[in-house]
Amino acid sequence: GGIPNLVNQRAAQGKSISFLDMHALAALDTTMTSPDYGSDGLHPSPTGYSKMASVWYSVLNPLL
Q1: Measuring CA to CA, which residue among 1, 40, 2, 4 is closest to residue 19?
Q2: 52 in Cβ contact with 26 (< 8 Å)
Q3: Is residue 31 within 8 Å of 42, Cβ to Cβ?
Q4: Long-range contacts of 37-43 (CB under 8 A, 24+ apart)
Q5: What's the CA gap between 23 and 52, in Å, rounded?
Q6: Exposure of 26 by Cβ count < 10 A (0-12 exposed, 13-18 middle, 19+ buried)?
Q7: Are 44 and 38 a contacting pair, CB within 8 Å?
Q8: Is the pLDDT of residue 63 over 90?
Q9: What's the average model confidence in pLDDT over 1-12?
Q10: Maximum pairwise Cα distance, the chain
Q11: Of 18, 13, 23, the residue nearest 59 (C-alpha)
Q12: Is the predicted pLDDT of residue 1 greater than 80, yes or no?
C-alpha cells in the first residue's frame, strides 16, 4: 500500500517516476542512542544525512 503502490500506478501510466526506499537503502540506525540521529531523536545527524546523501548520489548520478 501507500506510496510504493502510488508510484507503481503512475509508472504503469507511463510516468517517469521511481520509488527510493531511503529507510532500507541508507540503513540508518534507529536505536535511541544512534549516531545517525540528532539529540531530538527525530532528525538525522550529520552522519545520518551523509548516509542519505550517499544513497541519493548512487541513484541519481547514473541518470545525470
Answers
A1: 4
A2: yes
A3: no
A4: none
A5: 9
A6: buried
A7: yes
A8: no
A9: 94
A10: 43
A11: 18
A12: no
| DSSP letters for 3-51 | HHHHHHHHHHTT-------HHHHHT---STT-TTB-TTSSSB-HHHHHH
Beta bridge partners, 33, equal none
Question: Among all chains, which residue has been given the C-alpha cell 527510493?
Answer: 20
52/37 Cα distance (integer angstroms): 12
Amino acid identity, position 46 = P
Retrieve residue 47's grid coordinates: 552522519
The SS3 call for residue 64 is coil
pLDDT in tens, 14-49: 999 999 998 889 999 988 889 999 988 889 999 999
